[in-house]
């Protein structure tokens, strides 16, 4: 395993839904192996990736997205879906019982993962609620409905399947923007 | 047994009705050989220690080679405080028959005050330098004390929140090991969070 710094993406046709994830290819395992080599001294936040992930899991969405730019290890850890899962579950109404947690995770993974769920559904909704001051008032009432989030999320998934399904070789670069982006803008329903 | 307001407010971690709680003291030995005593109840806030006690490995003291004395004393302080708090909550819940209305009000006021106390205790426990804070995290992780791990990790997260990337690197002495292309790719990957 002599893979040192490989700065570019692997070539070849990217699978349509995973385009954005192909960007940085250095895996978390590679970074951890590299870091093990450099040792000594007081504990550094990068010494243990699992502890780093515990810490990053307690950030808000924007801070977590910006944390990815700190260094390779942070980029790799912030890509862990478990970290985004922790963030999402802090804002979403509780699933009933521990078994439901596993079932939810399966569904969310099938639809594209918690990071995508946050990006498309929860993040925009939280931003809008924050701006409207709703979060300040009733913490309990502002907990977003898990089933609503999943419904919106599955709409996005079906859209992607429909748009990218046709073309194979080299296609899919010009995907129509997700219709869920409406959540980011105020909607006039008058 | 008459329950008077005086009794209700003198709550402490004495042995009480419902004799499951023993007052047995557990010895914990830090990495530098110092011995600390804690009640079994407080010690069991650590899932790691709880298992050792239940497996019968705790009789001669529990050596903790990963935890230095300075940190162990803070951890024990945390456990004592929070075990007592959990104890009080259980007591209030467990004796509804004894409580008349006055008692309830007193208990509720005491609880609210105690919660504030606990919050400020927690805040001051983690208001330490970075090295100590990480030592606490490592100890809480090793000892499986969820509340303390939560508390300490949240403190570090709060230090990261709303800081620029350069500031974060400086605070935690992290080297920027991205290549130009990687850095740009990561920035693009996460640009969605910054579009208004």
UniProtKB/TrEMBL annotation, chain A:
Listed under GO biological process in this entry are: gibberellic acid mediated signaling pathway; regulation of gibberellic acid mediated signaling pathway
Task: Cite the Pfam families for this sequence.
Answer: F-box-like
| F-box domain: residues covered | 50-90
Q: Which Gene3D superfamilies match?
A: 1.20.1280.50
Cite a GO CC annotation. SCF ubiquitin ligase complex
What name does this protein carry?
Answer: F-box domain-containing protein
From TrEMBL, chain B:
Gene3D superfamilies per UniProt: Potassium Channel Kv1.1, Chain A
Say which domain of life the source belongs to. Answer: Eukaryota
**Residue limits of the SKP1 component dimerisation domain?**
146-193
Q: Species name for this entry?
A: Aegilops tauschii
Pathway, per UniProt? Protein modification; protein ubiquitination
Q: What is its main location?
A: nucleus
What family does the Swiss-Prot or TrEMBL record give for this protein?
Belongs to the SKP1 family.
Residue numbers spanned by region Disordered? 1-22, 87-114
Q: Where in the cell is it found?
A: Nucleus
Q: What is this protein called?
A: SKP1-like protein
Specify residue ranges for compositional bias: Low complexity. 1-15
């Amino acid at each position: 395993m002599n893979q040192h710094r490989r700065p570019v993406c692997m070539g070849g046709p990217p699978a349509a839904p995973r385009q954005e994830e192909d960007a940085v290819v250095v895996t978390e395992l590679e970074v951890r192996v590299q870091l093990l080599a450099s040792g000594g001294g007081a504990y550094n936040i990068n010494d243990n990736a699992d502890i780093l992930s515990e810490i990053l899991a307690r950030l808000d969405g924007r801070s977590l997205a910006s944390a990815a730019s700190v260094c390779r290890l942070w980029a790799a850890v912030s890509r862990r879906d478990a970290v985004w899962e922790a963030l999402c579950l802090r804002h979403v109404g509780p699933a009933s019982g521990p078994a439901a947690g596993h079932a939810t995770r399966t569904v969310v993974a099938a639809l594209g993962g918690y990071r995508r769920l946050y990006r498309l559904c929860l993040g925009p909704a939280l931003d809008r609620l924050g701006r409207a001051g709703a979060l300040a008032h009733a913490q309990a009432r502002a907990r977003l409905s898990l089933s609503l989030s999943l419904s919106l999320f599955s709409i996005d998934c079906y859209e992607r399947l429909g748009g990218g399904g046709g073309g194979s070789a080299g296609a899919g670069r010009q995907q129509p923007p997700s219709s869920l982006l409406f959540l980011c803008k105020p909607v006039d329903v008058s | 047994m008459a329950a008077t307001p005086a009794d209700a407010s003198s709550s402490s971690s004495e042995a009480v009705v419902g004799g499951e709680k023993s007052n047995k003291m557990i010895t914990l030995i830090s990495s530098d050989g110092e011995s600390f005593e804690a009640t079994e109840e407080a010690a069991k806030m650590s899932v790691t220690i709880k298992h050792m006690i239940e497996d019968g490995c705790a009789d001669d003291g529990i050596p903790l080679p990963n935890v230095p004395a300075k940190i162990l004393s803070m951890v024990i302080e945390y456990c004592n405080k929070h075990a007592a708090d959990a104890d009080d909550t259980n007591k209030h819940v467990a004796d509804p028959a004894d409580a008349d209305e006055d008692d309830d009000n007193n208990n509720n006021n005491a609880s609210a005050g105690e919660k504030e106390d606990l919050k400020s205790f927690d805040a001051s426990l983690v208001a330490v330098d970075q090295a100590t804070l990480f030592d606490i995290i490592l100890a809480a992780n090793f000892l499986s004390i969820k509340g303390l791990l939560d508390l300490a990790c949240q403190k570090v997260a709060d230090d990261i929140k709303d800081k620029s990337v350069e500031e974060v690197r400086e605070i935690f002495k992290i080297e920027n090991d991205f290549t130009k292309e990687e850095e740009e790719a990561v920035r693009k990957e996460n640009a969605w969070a910054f579009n208004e």
